[in-house]
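Chapter review: from sequence to fold.
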Amino acid sequence: MSEVFTFRLYLLRAMYLLMAVGLGITVWPGILAPGDVSHMGSVVRSMLGALALVALWGLRYPVKMLPMLLFEFMWKVIWVLAFALAPWLSGQLDEARQETLFACLMGVVLVPIAVPWDYVFQHYVKAPGDRWRGKGAGAQQGAAADGARPAGERRD
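The token string follows.
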């Protein structure tokens, strides 16, 4: 099992704190006093508000919350490539998208610095996946076929 160094844990906690505070300042006022907002705008606010709250768990469990940080990185990369790059290159990026681009680029740059990539590789790429079936179902059927008693079964 690869070790995550203490310094890296502090970097991760800093990222979670940045997410929680940043979203708390920018998104939560619009949740607490929604005003007139589009349907998809309300969905985005709700998701980002939840992300801010879940990021607080990252302060206590920085390694366990890595998938959330990877999600944060991935959605920002997708948004930059799919929705901001072409308008920016053609000089047609409006002011609202410029602000979003700046915020997303901060995440695209900072998250990879904080993430312990060796740990991610060892635990999310290289490690075997979790089983798809219940532990008892296959084991009990196999044991019964061999004439052995399934666990917990009494002999009369």
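Two observations follow directly from the output. The chain has a mean pLDDT of 89. Helices lie at 6-26, 28-32, 39-60, 66-89, 95-114, 117-126, 135-145.
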